[in-house]
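Hello again, I could really use a second opinion on something today. I've been staring at a protein lately and its backbone has me curious. Please have a think about how the structure follows from the sequence. I owe you a coffee for this, so here goes:
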Amino acid sequence: MQDNEVLILEEIEKNPNTTQRDLSEKTGLSLGMVNLLLKKFVKKGFVKLEKLNSRSFRYILTPEGFKEKSKKTIEYMKRYYQKTLLIKQNIERIIRIYGRNRTYILFGQDKEMKEIIEGILKELNVDYITQNDITKIDDSQIILYWDIDDKEKLKEFDSQFLLGDYNI
């Protein structure tokens, strides 16, 4: 089960009268994908359908659905914590190599990852700026990035990928 699936279960728990369109908008999933997942949830017994009229349904989270949502939420939190530890280890390693008395450049679009990294840098008392315009980055700066797709863009710079195992 993916994180978006947990979001769907949470939304159904909060509002059984939610529509598939509402779920699509809140999760960023296509309407077709939401429909497919809801069918899967009904088949697995996580959600029960209650027909309101010829065109509307109420989605009811079953006890099995509550249990599954709780289990997946805990798994998500564990993955989030492990990812945070990996990022912190990589930042500490980079600081040992390049030093604390410099300003690092954060490069990446994922706001959640950026917030995690900013929190770690603040905790370690390390200066940083965010710069996603590659033309404004000077090649003497150390760039910290978290999206593997940015690797090719940054190959001309001294850049460090924060989500990888640095033993590779």
